[in-house]
Amino acid sequence: MRYSSEFEGSICLIRFRYYNNKLSKMDVKVRPFLLVKSECEELPCDFTALPISKVSNKHNLDSYYDIEINNIDYPTLSLNESISYIRTHKIQTVHSNDINKKICDDIRDEYPDLVLSIKQRLNDFVSGIF
Fold first, then answer.
1. Residue 10 half-sphere exposure, CB side, CA atoms within 13 Å?
2. Which long-range contacts (CB under 8 A, 24 or more apart) does 30-33 make?
3. CB neighbours of residue 1 within 10 Å
4. With bands split at pLDDT 50, 70 and 90, how would you rate the model's confidence at 67?
5. Tell me: the pLDDT tens digits for 38-47?
6. What are the CA-CA distances from residue 114 to residues 57, 85, 124 (Å)?
7. So what's the pLDDT on residue 40?
8. Can you say how many angstroms the Cα of residue 47 is from the centroid of all Cα atoms in its chain?
């Protein structure tokens, strides 16, 4: 039996469904997400997750809620881009069946300051709802 808590605090590659405007249909791509919380203790289950993106158009960045992750400050993370952003204001739900369980980086022990920053900004965003 696998426990969902193994993945909380991990950056994992996720099969992500999205609407492809060019093809005018739903499509799938793989992208990194930070898994922040699971709905239950055992797999399979849903996770609350934050997308990680390179954000091609920098005008779409939020100066507070988008946290920059670069290869210099976080060299052990398995991100393809030299600079990516954890988007704490773009909360999503992903299912454990969509996780590539072989490619996950746990940030809790190695980058505690990053974890604190993510928690603070996520809490700030959520506390502003309603």
1. 19
2. 30/100, 32/79, 32/84, 33/92, 33/94
3. 5
4. very high
5. 999 999 999 9
6. 24, 12, 15
7. 94
8. 10
Q: Which of 30-39, 44-53, 99-108, 112-121 has the lowest mean pLDDT?
A: 99-108
Tell me: pLDDT of 61 over 70.
Answer: yes
The residue among 26, 34, 30, 6 whose CA lies nearest residue 16 is 30
Q: Which of 107, 119, 1, 99 is nearest to 46 (CA)?
A: 99
Alpha carbons within 13 angstroms on the beta-carbon side of residue 70 total 3
Instruction: Tell me which DSSP letter residue 122 carries.
Output: H
Measured at the CA of 23, the angle between CA 78 and CA 53, to 5 degrees, comes to 25
Question: What global pTM score does this model have?
Answer: 0.93
Q: What is the pLDDT of residue 1?
A: 60
Question: Whats the size of the chain, residue-wise?
Answer: 130
Domain ranges of the chain: 4-50+90-127
Buried b / exposed e along 52-72 (16+ C-beta atoms within 10 A): bbebeeeeeeeeebbbebeee
